[in-house]
Amino acid sequence: MSEADRGPASTEPADRLIEVFDLVGPLYRRAHRKVEQDAPIEGLSVGVRAVLNLLREHGPMTVPQMGRAQALSRQFVQRTINDAAARHLVESVPNPAHRRSSLIRLTGEGRAAITAVIERERAVLRRIGGDLTDAEIAACVRVLSRLLRHLDDVEVD
Length: 157
Known about the structure:
two-stranded antiparallel sheet
């Protein structure tokens, strides 16, 4: 449905935020499908791509830390890590802060794979976002970040 088909937009912030939620779901699902369609290029599932990118951005993390950061169950993250480890994209290393919860870090192969994915995604996003201003993108990130923080208390396990 286009913006014109929705009728006059409400100026009530709650109604406008509902519009945001109504867009985020389909956006997420289409992006998910796009990653799946492009997966044969690097051979990465959506979950492995997410974990590799998280490690690229934040460095070594434990499985529970990754689960909290991505709002995913530890079990799902562990299965994803197992898949990535089987492909030599990540490795487990001792965690000086916790003897039983190892740190997971990228291998050289993992870093190369996620770098290739990110560069391909950047090329696509450059074409999409050409007419958006930095202020518009910053406002979008601010709104989505606020909504995400508001839902921080939602259990994922």
